[in-house]
Amino acid sequence: MASDSPTSHPVANRTSNDLSWFAVRVRSNFERIAVTHLRERGYEEFAPSHKTERHWSDRKKEVDQFLFPGYVFCRFNPQNRLLVLTAPGVVDVVGWGKIPAPIPDEEIERVRRMVQSGLLVSPWPYLELGQAVLIERGPLASMEGILVEVKGRCRLVVSINLLKRSISAEVERSCVRPVKSVASNARPPARRIG
User: Fold this and answer.
1) What is the DSSP string of 76-133?
2) What does pTM read for this prediction?
3) Residue 9 DSSP one-character state
4) Of the residues 40, 55, 130, 150, which has the fewest C-beta atoms closer than 10 A?
């Protein structure tokens, strides 16, 4: 669902260094449509998903669900966001007042690495406080996050702070070591803008 290949569209010809990641809020169940249109318009988009098992009265089925329902991540210049805002399914860009709030590249890269790691990844309640850890080996080596325990198993939690949303992946306890905690950001919660 994520696209990393640029197209011949003029937006894509800019270097990714002059563009920032933003959270784009989309209508319910419009993530795939928004991603398709943003990609066709030449934007780098990212809509991570995970497999989950759904149960109906007569059957079970494995389905693909978005890790951040209602949001698509897109890299663009906030001064030129009209093409993003006019894409089908797009509601607005998350920000502070009328100013779109960029998401640090490191947060997007952590989510991308977790999704590509092959580990079981799932949405997780956002955590502001907790034990910060560093993964020393394995598919998530050198990644920092918050360590939690669920049903006797360790999970690494990483967050998109602007959205107050998190995801987690199961990790081996022997692969983690504590790191110094970073003070939480004192900004007020983000508001959605158009």
Assistant:
1) E-GGG-HHHHTSTTEEEEEEETTEEPPBPHHHHHHHHHHHHT-S-EEEE---SSSEEE
2) 0.69
3) S
4) 55
For residue 47, give the nearest of 33, 62, 66 by alpha carbon. 66
Check whether 127 has a pLDDT greater than 90.
no
Measured CA distances, 19 to 15, 25, 45, 160, 190 (Å): 7, 18, 12, 18, 20
Percent of the chain's residues with pLDDT above 70: 81
Encoded amino acid at 36, one letter:
T
Residue 46 CA from chain centroid, whole number: 7
Arithmetic mean of pLDDT over the chain: 84
> What secondary structure letter does DSSP report for 63?
E
